[in-house]
Amino acid sequence: ALNTITKTLNTTYWALLDEAGWKKEFGDQRDQVAHFARIPAADIQGVRSPYFFGVTDAMYNASRKSGLRYDSSIPSLRPEELYWPYTGDYKSSQTCGSCLKESHPGFLISPLLSLTGSNGGLCSTVDSCLDEPKNASQTFDLLYNNFLNHSQANRAPFGIHANAGWLLNAEAPFVKEGYLQ
Fold first, then answer.
1. How many CB atoms lie within 10 A of CB 94?
2. Which of 51, 35, 43, 39 is nearest to 3 (CA)?
3. From the centroid of its chain, how far is CA 139?
4. What's the confidence (pLDDT) of residue 113?
5. pLDDT for the residue 162
6. Which of 1 and 170 is assigned the larger pLDDT?
7. Is residue 75 located within the same domain as residue 129?
8. What are 75's strand-pairing partners?
9. 5-43: per-residue pLDDT in tens?
10. Are residues 127 and 103 part of one domain?
11. Matching InterPro entries, A to Z (predicted)?
12. How far is 14 from 78, CA to CA, in rounded Å?
């Protein structure tokens, strides 16, 4: 999935970005990915807003008009909110910080379901959990316990969302070991 060109931490930038700005962010990145990864641009169909900022109707409208078909930018804010992917045909019941005001027919929304860290805190991505695993066993337990939360509830898809650096960190090889268990 695309993630924009600038990827700035300036939340105001994303909150105020208009549809043309989003189209440029996603369109330029799509061109770069297509060129350097040699993936046909038409095969690049998803998007995620940087740091989950700026999820607005302008972002979704720009995504749809750019030929993108899905988004995975809206984190769940409660561990019991285990949503299945849904379309933007109707107003969402998902709790979110900057919920959409318009419907986006046919556009697929794949929510980031919060993980529960070993300290009970919530994290949208596994690498953002504040209580990072210290060994392979803790890594496995973090992932497995969250998987059980999904499989014993409504079986919503369980995603392991992280930056590649989390899994490939040379200073913490136990993360990959625990993941592979």
1. 17
2. 51
3. 20
4. 86
5. 87
6. 170
7. no
8. 112
9. 888 888 889 889 999 999 998 888 999 999 999 999 999
10. no
11. CE4
12. 24
What domain count does the chain have?
A: 2
What 3-state class would DSSP assign to 67?
coil
Terminal-to-terminal C-alpha distance of the chain: 26
Whether residue 70 sits in one domain with residue 100? yes
The range of the structural domain enclosing residue 41 comes to 11-109
Read off the pTM.
0.84
Greatest mean pLDDT among 53-57, 80-84, 90-94, 105-109 lies in 105-109
104 shares its domain with 154: no
**Domain-located, residue 132:** yes
Q: Is the pLDDT of residue 140 over 80?
A: yes
Residue that the structure tokens 């440029």 belong to? 24
Residue 64 in any domain: the answer is yes
Q: Is 63 helix (H, G, I), strand (E, B) or coil?
A: helix
The answer to whether position 5 is within a domain reads: no
Using alpha carbons only, what angle is made at residue 43 by residues 41 and 45, rounded to the nearest 5 degrees?
A: 95
Asked, for residue 48, whether it belongs to a domain, the answer is yes
Cα dihedral: 114, 93, 12, 3 (round 10):
60
Task: Mark whether 98 and 136 lie in a shared domain.
Answer: no
Please give the pLDDT value at position 63: 92
Residue 97 is predicted with a pLDDT of: 64
For 113-138, give the DSSP string.
Answer: PPEE-TTS-EESSGGG-SS--SSHHH
